[in-house]
Amino acid sequence: MSPSSPPGAPSSTCPPPSSAGREWAAGIGYADELSHVDRRRGVLWARQGAARGSGTPYLAGVHPLRQRQAMSHMLCQVCGESTYGSAFRRWGERHLFVARAPKGKPLGEGEVTTTPPICLPCARESVGACPHLRKGWTAALVERAQPWGVAGIRYDERTLKPLPLPETGLHTVPIDHPRERWTLAMRDVVTLHGVTPVDLGTVT
User: Fold this and answer.
1) How far apart, in whole angstroms, are the C-alpha atoms of residue 10 and residue 180?
2) Chain segment 122-146, per-residue pLDDT in tens
3) Is the pLDDT confidence value at 25 over 70?
4) How far apart are CA 57 and CA 102, in angstroms?
5) Under 8 Å CB-to-CB from 83, ≥6 apart: which residues?
6) Tens digits of per-residue pLDDT, 83-135?
7) What is the helix (H) or strand (E) element at residue 32, kind and residue range?
8) What is the pTM of this model?
9) Residue 163 CA: distances (Å) to CA of 39, 121, 152
10) Between 36 and 196, whose confidence is greater?
């Protein structure tokens, strides 16, 4: 029997219970798991179909694999192009990040985020079209994004049932924490360093 899906989780992401003694130790896993595909650093990742290049920008709903690739390779979370282009050099080797900020709070040094970088044209389109950003957003140029952990759905070690989701949407777990083995990852989490808030209307 597999654990039931929490609200909002894709049905294909339900991992069956695991047993101790498997090569990746106790934790959740898929019955038909391929470790080189389904895991990264030993952490189980959600399975979900991908369809790139259509629809309205919605930054909160980035596909798990696309989000992970965008964060790992500093790709624009909307169009998928590298953010190591001419703008990166023009901005003093910094990447542009845009995040939801309903209270107007700017991105700060050491900020923990699941939001990958974004290119300037996509950023300007997204702040006008993305429902996730309509209540407020903030932008910043960032020198470095340091891996911190993952965000996803945590499962109870005894019942193998998903734990209630926090108000922020997903559980966050730092790298190498024991809870990683019981978390179905859906986002890479990083901390931002060398952060300079910017105005998208004036940045070029």
Assistant:
1) 20
2) 999 999 888 888 889 999 999 999 9
3) no
4) 18
5) 74, 75, 76, 95, 96, 117, 118, 119
6) 999 999 999 999 999 999 988 899 999 999 999 999 999 999 999 888 888 88
7) none
8) 0.81
9) 21, 38, 11
10) 196
Contact 24, 177 (CB under 8 A): no
Go through 76-105 and write b for each residue having 16 or more CB atoms within 10 A of its CB, e for each that does not. bbbeeeebeeebbeebeebbbbbbbeeeee
168 close to 136: Cβ distance less than 8 angstroms = no
Residue 70, strand partner residues = none
Task: Report residue 35 as tokens.
Answer: 């470790």
Provide the token pair at 131: 């429902």
- pLDDT grade for 35, boundaries at 50, 70 and 90: confident
- List 198's β-bridge partners, or say none: 139
What phi-psi label fits residue 104: left (phi over 0), alpha (psi between -120 and 50 degrees) or beta? left
Average confidence (pLDDT) over 14-38: 67
| Residue 117 DSSP symbol | P
Contact criterion met (CB below 8 Å) for 199 and 139 = yes
Please, which residues bridge with residue 176 across strands? Answer: none
Is the CB of residue 188 less than 8 Å from the CB of residue 146? no
When pLDDT is cut at 50, 70 and 90, the band that residue 48 belongs to is: confident
**Cβ–Cβ < 8 Å for 46, 186:** yes
CA atoms of 63 and 132, how far apart (whole Å) = 15
